[in-house]
Amino acid sequence: MTIPVRIPTPLRKLTNDQEVVEAQGSTIREVINSLEHNYPGLKERICDEQDHIRRFVNVFLNDEDIRFLNESETPVKSGDEVSIVPAIAGG
Question: Residue 72 burial by CB count (10 A; 0-12/13-18/19+): exposed, middle or buried?
Fold first, then answer.
């Protein structure tokens, strides 16, 4: 199934400046792997060497942070939207 994924500005150089790209998968992990297949280099900016989503990267399924769901094993379905959001430091 095809899922739209919102790409943050700092990563758009890897997606030919596209704000929204399409990825396939039934879980967040599969969607990220699909992104890597279509846009090489993207996964290493999202995931660490252990294949976990980096601390400073937030991934949302619709409006829910996947850290409060099932992390990278969170299922996705038709009509869902994934957003990748870099954490913003400061305060």
Answer: buried
Q: Give the CATH number, domain containing residue 49.
A: 3.10.20.30
Is the model's pTM score more than 0.85? yes
Instruction: Tell me the residue range of the domain where 58 lies.
Output: 2-86
Which alpha helices (DSSP H) does the chain contain, by range? Answer: 28-38, 42-46
Would you state the torsion angle of the CA atoms of residues 20, 4, 81, 16, taken in this order, to the nearest 10 degrees?
A: -30
Tell me the pairing of strands 2-6 and 82-86: parallel
Q: Mean pLDDT by 10-residue block, N- to C-terminus, for the chain (91 residues)?
A: 95 97 97 98 96 95 96 96 86 57
Strands of the sheet containing 2-6, edge to edge, are 20-24, 2-6, 82-86, 57-61, 64-65
Q: How far apart are CA 11 and CA 86, in angstroms?
A: 10
